[in-house]
Amino acid sequence: MDFHALRDIVVLFGLALFTVVVLRRFNFPSIIGFLITGLLAGPYALGFIRDSHQVEQMAEYGVVLLLFTIGIEFSLKELMRIRHMVLIGGGLQLVLTIAAVAGLGAVGGFPLTQAVFFGFLVALSSTAILMKLMMDAGEMDTPQGKAALGILIFQDLCIVPLMLFTPFLAGGGKGLAEIAIVSAKAGAVIIGAHYGARFVVPWLFEQVVKTRSRELFVLSIIFIGMGTAWLTAQVGLSLALGAFIAGLAISESEYSHQALSDIMPFREAFMSLFFISVGMLLKPAILFKFPLLLLGLVLSIVVVKALLTSAVGLALGLPMRIALIAGLSLAQIGEFSFVLSRSGLKYGLLTPETYQLFLAASIATMALTPLCMKLAGPVADFMTATLPHSWTRGRKSLAQNGEKVGYQDHVIIVGYGVNGKNLARILKNLEIPRVIVETNPFTVRSLRREGEEIIFGDASKPEILEHAGIRDARIVVVAISDAAASRRIAAQARKMHPSIHVIVRTRYLLEMEPLFRLGVNEVIPEEFETSVEILFRVLKRFLIPQDVIENCIADVRRDGYEMLRSVSKRHSHAVGIAGFLSGAEIGSFRVRRKAPIEGESLRGGMLRSRSGATVVAIKRGDEITANPDPVWTFQEGDTALLLATPEQMRAAAKLFEPV
């Protein structure tokens, strides 16, 4: 039997393990290690792999699986919400990049048709690399992540028309008629996927789940993803686009999270092969033959793409910071450009030497992507700090937020994701004044139509916080996914209002220390809260009584947050009253019908004797009584403000609940 394919995979993975481990010691991303692995193992270097065709096929499966998982994590509703970024943003980026590169190529002496083809190659960015880096960094939900994704989706949609235009540029092909036919097929596939997501996929998963077979569930996921990709390829579209459409169909079902977790290991393995196969295509000799030309080419590609994409973002009304970060993130050449380049080589639009120059420049831009994303934040911050605010805040129709809000003692919510949305909804129900600050222009438009008090802008800018009424606010809640932006916003809020209460949501415990140094009062790490929710669900499955579960969770919260508070105290911006109440907490409880405390007076001593808590104030209706007299009698609906230790709070809580 022939085991050459298996030998090649073993060699590649073994070399990749060594290369990536060595590079990770120097904090280089894994992607660079995979590219170097392919360069070393390929037929033009050490020659471990002579025939790279099989590896390239498996690498294409990796791209398919990546787009499939992105589609599952996304949703049709979300896609419709950023349709302006997909259609207008993606269209402008593609057209402007092709025009700019074609113009530069024509000035450089290339024929116009060849210069336009160069524009085709440069206009596409790498979905595989950028989405992986953004997912690893947790930036998919950020405005810049959604802007980049919208443009990438449009680029993927345009791969087939560009492929069909290639022979047209070379003087062959059927031209516009063939493009129109394929576009009609694409529309039919998308419509079919829409109705499949609503009817076929839920029914199929329901039948599979009834069998209680995980193997069958995994097979059904692969069948839907690969099957849709194959069908789209049959009608002339790309495999990756079909996989993305299949992922969108699954994302609308209740089984999407399980599907994503089951498919993830396959994606990671095949994606590494994709980056390795890209490295295999390059002849290292070209690097030594034209070093200065390659350097200039790489810099030109990065600068042109970053500037044009940033300009598109600004034209759509995004703040300069978000537009610049998205622009630098999309400054590489994409994986589908390699497919397009082979077509150009076939039709004579590229010579073998220009093909290798293109490969070298493309791989270099891919390898530079992690660095570009790392530098994007500081570069954007420098530009927004240097230029006037009127230039950086976004389009006038969105940046013009009217008069300064007239609220007093309100809550400022930065970010309208899941956390911000839930908080705003509850505050609205409780009639607590709130102001939302959001950088997604489409969210701003939608909420304004609903009558919500929302401001478009970057909350790290003093003008935006001033407009939100920072000096009259009681609390600022930062509920965004961007850790660096959260730190800037917290610092700016503390600077403008030294006594305001700042609460920041963060992903990991490691991000807490820098936030507390900036004077943040409370940091809510999702990592810790997830552990509490896991504990609750585990104990629930063992039928542990509810009161025992609540006591266990209270113990975990007390121990965990005592540790977090100790970090907070080390970096506290001011001692305040908390310094005198070490170990104590302030909490409020409402008297419920038939609660033990209902009808009891303070003089009776039930609250003090059975819990040890002290009443600070009582609210009845709209009237607040501080330090109430001993004759005060609790009634249903009263809200008592108590001072107590965590243990005393738990004991007091039982007195306010129905027996």
UniProtKB/TrEMBL annotation:
Top-level taxon in the UniProt lineage: Bacteria
Keywords: Membrane, Transmembrane, Transmembrane helix, Transport
Any Pfam family: TrkA_C
RCK N-terminal domain ranges (all copies): 408-525
Membrane topology, from the record: Multi-pass membrane protein
Limits of the RCK C-terminal domain: 573-658
Main location: membrane
Localization annotation: Membrane
Family the entry assigns: Belongs to the monovalent cation:proton antiporter 2 (CPA2) transporter (TC 2.A.37) family.
The keyword Transmembrane is annotated on this UniProt entry: yes
Chain ranges passing through the membrane: 6-23, 30-49, 61-79, 86-110, 116-135, 147-170, 176-195, 216-249, 269-286, 293-316
InterPro entries reported for this sequence: Cation/H_exchanger_TM, RCK_C, RCK_N
Annotated protein name in UniProt: Cation:proton antiporter
